Amino acid sequence: MSTTSTTSGPAACWACGATLGSxxxxxxxxxxxxxxxxxxYYQVFDLDRGFLLDTVSLEREFHRLSRKLHPDRxxxxxxxxxxxxxxxxxxxxxxxxxLRDPIQRTEYLLKLCGLxxxxxxxxxxxxxxxxxxxxxxxxVFELNMQLEEMRMNQKMGEDDPSLQADLTAARGKFxxxxxxxxxxxxxxxxEWDAGNAATRENAANAMAAQLDRRRYLRNLVRDVNEVLSxxxx
Amino acid sequence: MPEERxxxxxxxxxxxxxxxxxxxxxxxxxxxxxxxxxxxxxVLDPVAPDAxxxxxxxxxxxxxxxxxxxxxxxxxxxxKRLMGRGxxxxxxxxxxxxxxxxxxxQPGEVLRIxxxxxxxxxxxxxxxxxxxxKRNAERYFGAEVKKAVITVPAYFNDAQRQATRDAGRMAxxxxxxxxxxxxAAALAYGLDRAKEGIIAVYDLxxxxxxxxxxxxxxxxxxxxxxxxDTHLGGDDIDNLLLAVALDEIRxxxxxxxRQQPDAIQALRKAVIEAKIVLSTEPAAKLDIELPNGxxxxxxxxxxxxxxxxxxxIERTAGPxxxxxxxxxxxxxxxxxxxxxxxxxxxxxxxxxxxxLFQLSARGxxxxxxxxxxxxVALGAAVQASILAGSSTTTEELLLLDVTPLSLGIEALxxxxxxxxxxNSTIPASATEHFTTGVDGQTNVAIHVLQxxxxxxxxxxxxxxxxxxxIPPMQAGLPRIEVKFLIDANGILKVSARExxxxxxxxxxxxxxxxxxxxxxxxxxxxxxxxxxxxxxxRQLIEVRLEADNILDxxxxxxxxxxxxxxxxxxxxxxxAAVTELTTTKAGNDLAQIxxxxxxxxxxxxxxxxKMMEAAVSGAMRGKTMQTASDxxxxxxxxxxxxxxxxxxxxxxxxxxxxxxxxxxxxxxxxPEEDQK
Lengths: 233, 676
What we know:
The complex is a heterodimer.
Chain A: H1 41-44, H2 55-69, H3 79-100, H4 102-112, H5 137-156, H6 161-194, H7 197-232
Helix pairs in contact in A: 2-3, 3-4, 4-7, 5-6, 5-7, 6-7
Chain B: E1 6-11, E2 15-22, E3 25-28, E4 38-39, E5 41-44, E6 58-60, H1 65-70, E7 75-77, H2 91-96, E8 113-115, E9 118-120, H3 122-141, E10 147-152, H4 158-170, E11 174-180, H5 181-189, E12 197-204, E13 209-217, E14 220-229, H6 234-253, H7 261-278, E15 283-289, E16 295-301, H8 302-314, H9 317-327, E17 336-340, H10 347-356, H11 375-388, E18 398-400, E19 407-410, E20 416-420, E21 428-434, E22 444-450, E23 460-468, E24 480-486, E25 492-498, E26 506-511, H12 517-522, H13 531-557, H14 568-586, H15 590-603, H16 605-615, H17 625-635, H18 653-656, H19 659-664
Parallel strand pairs in B: 1-10, 10-11, 12-17, 14-18
Antiparallel strand pairs in B: 1-2, 2-3, 2-4, 5-6, 5-7, 8-9, 12-13, 13-14, 15-16, 19-20, 19-22, 21-24, 22-23, 23-26, 24-25
């Protein structure tokens, strides 16, 4: 997200002069598309910030706004309106993509709260060496040994059913841990949604830590899956 | 009539089509030869060696077909395979296709193809095809056409899309939208707004394969995942059969045809015909005379053929499974499967689709009601109508498509950092921040890539550009915000701003394998200055051709049994109309010639009906010569050809789209197996 402090959208509709809300993509009076101010993904959908949200009504709202904002609706409009429609729809799509996914939504909202979240896809730092969570050090160490052994076996064309069974079991364990993280994120999320400033800060910090753990676990499961899928081919 | 007509174009590897939304149904606009399909073949007509450049002319479509064999060095087909590609990308294609590239192409330069004594970029060749389609539409409307929607394979990357848009501009078309082919097909099928649920479109054409998974909901067509292979299609099957035949000919007859372009073209034609036969028959025969007088005779049983092509067909399974995974669904959640592209006529392809989506196991069948060769163009016409806002049928429809490939930038160590994931709904955007590494640095170089691989070297390089004019500052201090935006055509736009100084940086986005605006400008086919007079001259030539067509048809009809059923008055009226048209045709009055054509058309209406009645059972009222001869063509009467396209106003719904009759047409009447 941009951190620029540009002014919010104009106060009046360029076409009909009606008064606009602070983050209107469309004029409430005449329905014309408006130039984009600096608005966040929640404001796009006119939602309060929160970790839990109803994705069914989010989709409905996404479709409703798409029908009005999409560039297809502006093929005969002025070049200026076409440009506004394009940027507004890109924002709408980016917002929908982020908010409909619980993990992306959590990362986004924590960033809005000012927390730094490890950005795997953000481009600048691909922090390859992340520390495993402290409570899992031993298990992760053992798993990595097994993965290495399995890769060696595969290279040599050897088969080790017991090792494969161990890895399958380990995968099950880490998937369970992953599910625990997700359910903890959800409960911390509702704590945040319902809480005051103090509980919110605690919940947010806890979620940021859980996101790091989750990223680590997910990479681990992915590695095991890779090795196991080669084995079954 | 709306003042601005927007046409829908399917620019295919093998065939191209143009369609238009006629009140509430899309129709394909036929060419002057009466055929809906314009083969994507371009031939440079022979000119005297000292003729000026302006004297160059090309022939496109069916009339260019003969030149493929007679003067292959002046002809090109399947140029879509070269669109938006660089020299390194096409090495495999060059082994399989008779493309003759210029010798002096540098890496990173747009390809140039040699035709006779001249050279053309792939966009220019495509522009000639587009211009032909534009003219067909103009003849149909009797008015100039300037705006179009053009379809592209869903899996086309940025460069391929840009090359297609450039071709449109060169042909004098304002390309309002590039639409993905499978999505267009879904639109053609989904005009009925009540459709809900998740569908898959499996599109195997002449040169490309696409798979798209869509969610339909109250007129919104939301693509949730797409995948594909831009180099997989019926062409690959043809090449395989051709390679086998060439080997056999060398082994059995001691003749190596590989260095004889005309012989290869003749052989290619024969194997394509065999392929088409094998879609309906248990075996096909090849019987070709070789240059040494021997005959190459071979019977190909369906089982042998299917075993041979299985590896090609199997290559569609991987992308299909990936699309399902990306969509987060299992095959049993797919409610309907739509088949698109001529290659889906192959029974083995249908068997694979059935297996991939567990169709027969669930008591389902794929959708094939619309002609797989035409469905994409019909969908393009629907999208054109959405953009034009010209039809109540399409008023509530909206297409939400996705970008097929992830967008990334090269980070330290040659790794790709993804900034927009594949299958993101477009338009989509991402904002990145950059800074400098050296004190006083005023430029930052950015390398944009498209693809799914980890290393920049394995992805498709889209553009390298420089952020210029950064105010000199301490290293790391400038904060440059770069905004990447993929528009509704799937094409990338980049803008940048230095935030500390508030300066808008000057960016030069140089596409890696693309033409600059200036280059495109010089390649525009028709000079604007002459466009108006050109248009009238062209219309005159074309209306005369139509006049010849209908006169020819009437003359042939005189020997038909239906002629004897006419009254003396009717025969006299026809004779008068023929005389009138023959006279006006010699003059230069466009409107008068048109009026005479309409006059003859009216005079022959009863004749047309009689001919229809004789040919098909049941009374067909209100037909004109046009539709009557269309139907007769389909029913196999070899006497009547080339309907004239002016009589379209009489179409009724049952003939506009006649899926059943298209589907049941004899294989011999459907000479084009491949579409894309």
